[in-house]
Every structure is written in structure tokens, then in C-alpha cells.
Design brief:
mainly alpha
Length: about 375
């Protein structure tokens, strides 16, 4: 039985209560030791009594913090050891996502049949279960070599991570029409196309997608007619009030300018400028903390116009070298679970790894497409 919210909050409350009790007991124990144990009494006898009293309480407080921080430091060290392997699996994910996207382009153009794909939205399901996808070949050593070259040759101010638009074909088409380069946020796709000669795949006609769209339109036209005749309930109506702008901080600045005194508004602007500066410095500060583990003779800083960019690029160079060196180990781990969806390093815990034969949202779209075919006088199947 899943844990209820009350159970979860009770656990947190009990845990925090137990921690506060331990802190108080440990503090009192430390104070008592410092005041009564002979080794401490002898040490403090040459100091001013008032100063000793202040020191004892201050030291006891810090000792509590040191003990508590031990677990945090332990978790931090463990996270550092796991970090590179998570990045390695980002690389493996990208390798497979590009294979699946190329297969999607060919499938939509009706140049390829895929046993795990019935309709277009199935690709979004396999986007979240990429290592279990039956429609692409497994990762090979050649794939690892190509991705390693990509990491070496791509500018260091371009980060690689898992959170990209990998399989949303329609949105990538929209980006292509509006901005020109559909893969600007995913340079691996562009690099792969350049090296493997697959750049024309995305420009193939979307035959399958257009057929599905036609049946979906028939379904919605029929639904609209039924709603107008009262056969189907109408869509609920909402009295939408305007939302605040997406740039919420700028809106607050303008609000303060309009409604506060000029002096308070100037203070608001100064505080906002400081906040932005702190945010700008956070990433390079994080990178610096991680670069501390690099040997001094390695620390040739990457050239850049801004020191922050230089620090981040230097870290990115180091990160990629670590990933390249560990990719064979990650590849071996991948092969042990070949063909399965599993809790690989960095696995998004929000996405369930349990197999879904109906592929989630695809069931909804499949029903609509089949009803559209029936309304058009065609069989309720996908032979179109």
C-alpha cells in the first residue's frame, strides 16, 4: 500500500524531533565533559573563567554542528563519485535517442517499419524508456568512439545533459520553421548527422503524421457537431483571469516603481541587481569547488572574455575528460542490463520503469485515430 501524505509528514516530524533531542543531549554532554573532565579542567585553569565559560558553550555548539555535518560531507563525497557515472549515462542516452529519432523520421516517411511503434505518439513513450526500446540496435563501441569525439570537438561552452527535446518531432518542426535550426539545443544531433550523413532524414515528408492528423481532425469535427446538437456534453467554460507575466521579477520591479516611493524603488533595484550578480556567480563558484580536486599542473584555464565563462569552460573540459575515461565502464554496466529498463545512474525517478503495454498517452490517441477511421468509412485498424 502506498504511503499516505500523513504518514510521510509524520516520519519527517519524528525524524526532526529525534534530531533536535539528540542535539540537545549531545550539547549538554559536551558542556559537562568540558567542565568536569580533569584534562579539560587543567587546560582551562590558566584562562579567565568568564572566557572559559563562553568558550565551552561556543565549542559545544560547534561540536554538535561538526557531528551533523559529517553525514552531509559523506553524502557529498558519495555524490561526487557517482556524478561522473551519471554523466556517462547521459552520453549513452543521447546515443540511443539519436538512433530512435532517425528511425522516427524514416518511419514517418513510410520508409521503415518498427515493431514497437503503432502511432506517432509511441515515440514519446520510448523517449522515457530508451534503453528498453526494441526498435533500435544496442550501443556499440563505434557509438562510444563517435560520442567521445563529439565531446572532444564540441566547444566547452556547450554543455551536454539529458533534459532535451529528443523525440517531439512536431515541436522540432515548429522550431525549424520559426528559427531555422531545430537542433540548436541538441548539438549531438547535428554532430551525428554531419559525421554519419543522416542530415536529410528530418527533411523527409511526414506521410504518417499527416495521415494521423487527418483522422484526428475527422474525430474532432464529428465531436464538435455532436456537442452542438447536445449529443455530447459541451466543453466546460472558464472565466480566465490574466496571469502575471512570465518574467515575474521584472513585473515586480515595475510594480514597485509604480506603487512604492522612489527611495524604496531604488533600494529594490539595488537588491535585485545584487541578487542577479549572486546568481551569475553561483555556477562558476560551484565549478571552482569541483575544480579543487584537479591537480595544479592541469589548471590551464580556458580562454574567455569573462572569467566566469573561463571557469565554467575549464570545468566542462575536465568533466568531459572524466566522462570519456569512464565511458567504457558505463558501457559495460549498460551491457549487463541490455534490453531492459532499469535504475541506471541518473535515472529519472519520476518516470515509472514498469512496462506499459498501452504506452500511456498513446492509448488515448490510438482510440481517436481509430474512431476517425470509422467515421470516414474505413476499418478500425492502422492499415493506412
Amino acid at each position: 500500500m502506498p504511503e499516505s501524505d500523513n504518514d510521510y509528514h509524520n516520519k519527517i516530524y519524528k525524524s526532526r524531533t529525534a534530531e533536535e533531542k539528540w542535539k540537545a543531549e549531545f550539547y549538554q554532554k559536551t558542556v559537562l565533559e568540558l567542565k568536569t573532565e580533569e584534562r579539560f579542567v587543567n587546560y582551562f585553569k590558566d584562562f579567565d573563567p568568564n572566557a572559559v565559560e563562553m568558550f565551552i558553550h561556543s565549542y559545544a555548539t560547534r561540536k554538535v554542528q561538526w557531528y551533523l555535518s559529517g553525514e552531509g560531507l559523506k553524502e557529498w563525497e558519495q555524490s561526487k563519485s557517482k556524478r561522473w557515472m551519471k554523466d556517462c549515462f547521459v552520453a549513452l542516452i543521447e546515443i540511443q535517442q539519436k538512433k530512435l529519432f532517425n528511425a522516427q523520421c524514416l518511419w514517418r516517411a513510410e520508409k521503415l517499419k518498427l515493431p514497437g511503434i503503432a502511432i506517432c505518439s509511441d515515440f514519446m513513450y520510448w523517449n522515457d524508456h530508451i534503453f528498453a526500446c526494441p526498435d533500435i540496435g544496442p550501443i556499440t563501441e563505434q557509438d562510444i568512439d563517435l560520442y567521445s569525439r563529439y565531446l572532444r570537438e564540441t566547444p566547452f561552452d556547450v554543455r551536454f545533459d539529458e533534459f532535451k527535446n529528443y523525440q517531439d518531432y512536431d515541436d522540432l518542426k515548429r522550431i525549424q520553421q520559426e528559427y531555422g535550426n531545430p537542433f540548436e539545443d541538441n548539438p549531438w544531433y547535428t554532430y551525428y548527422d554531419d559525421k554519419e550523413g543522416t542530415g536529410s532524414y528530418f527533411d523527409l515528408p511526414d506521410i504518417r503524421g499527416e495521415k494521423e492528423a487527418a483522422y484526428i481532425a475527422i474525430y474532432h469535427e464529428d465531436l464538435a457537431i455532436k456537442r452542438s446538437l447536445g449529443i455530447e456534453p459541451p466543453l466546460p467554460t472558464y472565466d480566465f483571469q490574466p496571469f502575471f507575466p512570465l518574467d515575474y521579477n521584472e513585473f515586480k520591479l515595475e510594480f514597485a516603481k509604480r506603487h512604492e516611493t522612489p527611495a524604496l524603488y531604488r533600494q529594490f533595484v539595488r537588491a535585485d541587481r545584487e541578487k542577479k550578480l549572486n546568481a551569475l556567480n553561483e555556477q562558476p563558484e560551484y565549478c571552482i569547488s569541483l575544480l579543487e580536486e584537479i591537480p595544479i599542473d592541469y589548471m590551464a584555464i580556458e580562454p574567455a572574455d569573462d572569467w566566469r565563462t573561463a571557469v565554467m569552460c575549464t570545468y566542462e573540459r575536465y568533466r568531459r575528460e572524466k566522462v570519456i575515461s569512464l565511458l567504457p565502464k558505463a558501457f559495460a554496466l549498460y551491457l549487463k542490463h541490455l534490453g531492459h529498463d532499469w535504475h541506471y545512474p541518473g535515472r529519472n525517478k519520476i518516470v515509472d520503469i514498469a512496462p506499459d503495454p498501452e504506452k500511456g498517452l498513446s492509448k488515448h490517441y490510438l482510440k481517436i485515430i481509430l474512431q476517425g477511421r470509422t467515421l470516414n468509412g474505413e476499418p478500425a485498424d492502422l492499415n493506412f
